[in-house]
């Protein structure tokens, strides 16, 4: 079912500092910041040869990242995103096997303009998993 690792997401308390650390100190290629109000985040991607890092900064009152940063003030790895060929088929199989699909269970359009879903961290080794339609 899961395919390529699309990105590893890091929640950050200071987006500019994170961008400077990765672009100036690590010499990485970073994108401009993009607000994603539907997800309550501002996103910057670090483009790597074999995958991406997704910096997440809270946007708005009910951001899931705000909650995460309250518990992890220095920031940290927030989720991993795998690509799937058919996100609806993947969702239905996962639900049939008892995995918790977060939100209302319907995919939302993510940062790559593709449908995404999230799976509860408690069902996958304490790690929040995002699935993105390949
Ligand atoms: C533009 C979209 C972009 C993209 O790539 O396309 C994105 O990736 S958007 C990313 C932001 N969106 C989301 O994260 C949506 C899914 N997240 C959620 O539904 C919640 O954040 C949830 C359910 C993971 C956690 O909700 P909340 O923080 O309200 O719950 P708790 O604090 O009560 O936590 C419950 C339990 O889970 C543990 N937890 C919370 N967040 C994480 C995490 N990121 N990784 C691992 N574990 C996590 C938390 O510690 C609690 O555990 P406990 O043992 O009970 O303390
Ligand atoms: Co993501």
Show the helix and strand layout.
Blueprint: E1 5-11, H1 15-25, E2 29-30, E3 34-36, E4 41-47, E5 52-58, H2 64-71, E6 76-84, H3 87-96, E7 108-109, E8 115-119, E9 128-133
Parallel strand pairs: 1-5, 6-9
Antiparallel strand pairs: 1-6, 2-4, 3-4, 4-5, 7-8, 8-9
The structure holds ligand LZKTLF4L and cobalt (II) ion.
Ligand LZKTLF4L binds next to β4, β5, α2, β6 and β8.
Structure, explained:
The chain has 134 residues and is an alpha+beta fold. 22% of the residues lie in helices and 36% in strands. The chain is built from 3 helices and 9 strands. The protein has helices spanning 15-25, 64-71, 87-96, and strands at 5-11, 29-30, 34-36, 41-47, 52-58, 76-84, 108-109, 115-119, 128-133. Strands 1, 2, 3, 4, 5, 6, 7, 8 and 9 form a 9-stranded mixed sheet that branches. It is globular and about 45 Å long. The termini are close together. The protein binds ligand LZKTLF4L and cobalt (II) ion. Ligand LZKTLF4L binds at residues 9, 36, 39, 41, 43, 54, 56, 64, 67-68, 78-79, 81, 102, 110-111, 116, 118, 121, 126-128, 130. Cobalt (II) ion (CO) is lined by residues 7, 9, 54, 79, 81, 130. This is methylmalonyl-CoA epimerase. It holds the Pfam family Glyoxalase_4. GO terms for molecular function: metal ion binding; methylmalonyl-CoA epimerase activity.
């Amino acid at each position: 079912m899961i395919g390529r690792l699309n990105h590893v997401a890091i929640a950050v308390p200071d987006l500019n500092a994170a961008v400077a650390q990765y672009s100036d100190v690590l010499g990485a290629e970073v994108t401009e910041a993009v607000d994603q109000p539907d997800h309550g985040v501002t996103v910057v991607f670090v483009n790597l040869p074999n995958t991406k890092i997704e910096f997440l900064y809270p946007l708005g009152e009910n951001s899931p990242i705000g909650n995460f940063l309250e518990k992890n003030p220095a920031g940290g790895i927030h989720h991993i995103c795998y690509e799937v060929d058919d996100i609806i088929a993947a969702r239905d199989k996962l639900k049939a096997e008892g995995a918790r699909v977060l939100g209302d269970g319907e995919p939302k359009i993510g940062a790559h303009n593709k449908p995404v879903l999230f799976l509860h961290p408690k069902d996958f080794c304490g790690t929040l998993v995002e699935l993105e339609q390949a």
